[in-house]
Amino acid sequence: MARARAAFHVARCEDTVYVRVSGLATMHNAMTFRAFAERMAAEGFRRCLVDLAPCQGVDSTFMGVLVGLREHFGRERLVLLNPSPHCMDQMTSVGLNHLLTFADSPCALPADVELTPLPDSEVGTRERLELMRKAHRNLVAIDRRNRDKFGPFLDALDAQLGHGG
C-alpha cells in the first residue's frame, strides 16, 4: 500500500492548538505545518499538541521543524501525542526524545474539539530548500552526531543555495 503525504487537521481551544498528522510528514508539507504553528504562536496560543497517532512516518526535515517550533512554544508546551513505535524510533534516532515532550500514555483530543483540514500552502523551490537547510541545522545543533548523518546533505544545500556554510 502506498503511503500518503501528510494531511494536517487542526483546532484551536483556549490557549491550545491541536494538530493531527495523518500520512507521511515530510519536506513536502513541513512548511504548511510550520507556517500554521508559527502563526498560532504569534496570535497568542501558548500550547501546541501534535497528535501523531495516524502518522505513518516523519522525515528529517519535519523533525527539524519540530525542533524549531520549540522556540515558539517551549519544551513543556509543545507536546507530541501518540507516536507509533516507528515514528518514535525515527525521532529518537536524531535525539528528539531528549529535547521535546512526549505524552507518557496514549491521549485523545477533547471531545468538544472539532478538527478541520489545514490547506496546503504553495511553496517555491528556494523556500523549500531554505526550510530544509534550517531544519537540518536545527538537528545538528541539538546533537553533534547528526552532523555525521546530515553534513553532506547540508553542504549540498549550502552549495545549491549559495551559502558559505
Overview of this structure, please?
43% of the residues lie in helices and 21% in strands. It has a domain at 7-120: Transcription Regulator spoIIAA, CATH 3.30.750.24. With 165 residues, it is of the alpha/beta class. The protein is built from five helices and seven strands. The longest helix has 18 residues, at 125-142. It is globular, with a radius of gyration of 15 Å. The chain has helices at 30-42, 60-73, 85-93, 125-142, 145-161; strands spanning 7-13, 16-25, 47-51, 55-58, 78-81, 101-102, 116-117. Helix 1 runs parallel beside helix 2 (60-73), helix 2 crosses helix 4 and helix 4 packs antiparallel against helix 5.
Radius of gyration: 15 Å
Structural class: alpha/beta
- Please tell me the CATH architecture of the domain at 7-120 by its name: 2-Layer Sandwich
What sequence of helices (H) and strands (E) makes up the elements?
EEHEEHEHEEHH
Task: Kindly state the number of beta strands.
Answer: 7
Strand content: 15-25%
The tally of helices reads 5
Alpha carbon gap, first and last residue = 39 Å
CATH classification, class level of the domain at 7-120: Alpha Beta
Q: Let me know the average pLDDT.
A: 92
Low-confidence stretches: none
Question: Into which percent range does the helicity of residues fall?
Answer: 40-55%
What is the third-level CATH name, the topology of the domain at 7-120? Transcription Regulator spoIIAA
